[in-house]
Design a protein that fits this description.
InterPro entries: Marvel (IPR008253), MARVEL-CKLF_proteins (IPR050578)
Subcellular location: Membrane
GO molecular function: structural constituent of myelin sheath
Structural class: mainly alpha
Helix content: over 70%
Number of helices: 4
Largest sheet: 2 strands, antiparallel
Number of strands: 2
Keywords: Membrane, Transmembrane, Transmembrane helix
Protein name: MARVEL domain-containing protein
Length: 110
Amino acid sequence: MFVSVTAFICSLLFLGVFLSGVVTQINANWNFLDLAYHFTVFVFYFGAFLLQAAATSLHDLRCNRTMAVQPLLNDDKYNINVAATVSIFAFVTTACYGCSLGLALRRWRP
């Protein structure tokens, strides 16, 4: 959730800067800033995806073997984690920022 909200706010700010025309008034390498932004967001989304997949893989892990053996995740939590891991949103967003990163790399020339 943190990654999604942060990326959404930063994307709106980044878009607002471009649409307002402030880009022409600030002397900065906007291609590099675009590349850095998309790379950072891609890494955050991919990291969140991997952490969710790791949490889902812990379904069969048994905890506290000295007492009654119960799975770490019950079936409801497991189903929610599977849905979150393979959701269209995770794949599409990661792919979208990955493609944007590729286009920024292609456009960027120091």
